[in-house]
């Protein structure tokens, strides 16, 4: 079996979970398939680095001593805001030789600064997507997915999305059974699809300035199966349909119909994840009316059916020990 070296770049101000999450995934895979991965960490000088949370990590070696890894993993953290120029120089001169380049969260800023993401479709933490797109216009930044694969480059959103991406890479390398065993051990999902949105509709949308519209946003979230037509919502807000549609779009940042679509999709996702309700019951509870209407919404936005979404997204449960 080919041994794949995973080299994790460390620097002052790194996010500890961006490092430990993927490392635990690759380590777990090596327990199931001995020798599958060799995991090493490297820093500029090989000296201990301090994470954003105050933990100290000690690199295995310096970046200068590192060879060409199979997978180069660049985590994020506050240290990506003003990185050491030597780190960027090393990435620019060496990272392209790795078979896979992977970033977690704001680690994408380091890869972009080194010129490794030009022309690529990428993502990062949703709070940083606008910054990434503005600073590096040659990138195609997609703010919604939890991770994006583009050729030999993979970028992911914040913190836990690094675990999702690592599980996807293990599944690609060693198969679904190994990845599932790792997920069970870590008690995480196997696996959130990469095009799963990284934030809720409440985070994606703006909060309306006027109290009636703010209250209406909350009411929509709590009543996805209600009549959420423009006329019905306008009546609840005490406005004419035309005035309501214009005010909602101006203050929330999207038309009311699109907001309702997102709320219903999110409600359906949560119900598929958290309950054993049947597909027809979920579709009625979330305002779709029919399973077919919900299926079309899932395929359009997530690229998967509700049944497949549930299969992938249900938490992996450890097997019950034999008596």
TrEMBL record:
Xref: SUPFAM superfamilies: Class I glutamine amidotransferase-like, Homeodomain-like
Pfam families in UniProt: DJ-1_PfpI, HTH_18
Protein keywords: Transcription, Transcription regulation
Domain HTH araC/xylS-type: 214-312
MF terms (GO), sorted A to Z: DNA-binding transcription factor activity; sequence-specific DNA binding
Name of protein: DJ-1/PfpI family protein
């Amino acid at each position: 079996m080919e041994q794949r070296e995973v080299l994790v770049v460390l620097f002052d101000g790194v996010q500890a979970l961006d490092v430990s999450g993927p490392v635990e995934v690759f380590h777990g895979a090596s327990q199931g398939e001995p020798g599958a991965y060799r995991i090493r960490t490297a820093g500029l000088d090989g000296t201990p680095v301090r994470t954003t949370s105050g933990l100290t990590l000690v690199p295995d070696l310096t970046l200068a001593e590192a060879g060409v890894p199979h997978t180069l993993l660049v985590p994020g953290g506050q240290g990506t805001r003003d990185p050491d120029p030597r780190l960027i120089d090393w990435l620019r001169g060496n990272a392209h030789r790795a078979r896979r380049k992977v970033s977690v969260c704001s680690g994408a800023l380091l890869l972009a600064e080194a010129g490794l993401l030009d022309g690529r479709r990428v993502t990062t933490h949703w709070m940083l997507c606008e910054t990434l797109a503005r600073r590096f216009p040659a990138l195609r930044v997609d703010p919604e997915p939890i991770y994006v694969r583009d050729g030999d480059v993979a970028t992911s959103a914040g913190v836990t999305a690094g675990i999702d991406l690592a599980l996807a890479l293990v599944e690609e390398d060693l198969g679904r059974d190994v990845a599932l065993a790792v997920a069970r051990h870590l008690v995480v999902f196997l696996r959130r699809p990469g095009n799963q949105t990284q934030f809720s509709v409440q985070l994606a949308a703006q909060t309306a300035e006027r109290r009636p519209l703010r209250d209406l946003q909350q009411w929509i979230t709590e009543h996805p199966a209600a009549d959420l037509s423009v006329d019905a919502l306008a009546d609840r807000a005490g406005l004419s349909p035309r005035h309501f549609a214009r005010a909602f779009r101006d203050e929330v940042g999207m038309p009311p119909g699109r907001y309702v679509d997102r709320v219903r999709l999110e409600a359906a996702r949560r119900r598929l994840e958290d309950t054993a309700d049947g597909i027809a019951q979920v579709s009625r509870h979330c305002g779709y009316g029919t399973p077919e209407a919900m299926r079309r919404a899932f395929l359009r936005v997530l690229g998967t059916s509700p049944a497949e979404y549930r299969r992938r997204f249900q938490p992996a449960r450890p097997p019950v020990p034999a008596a």
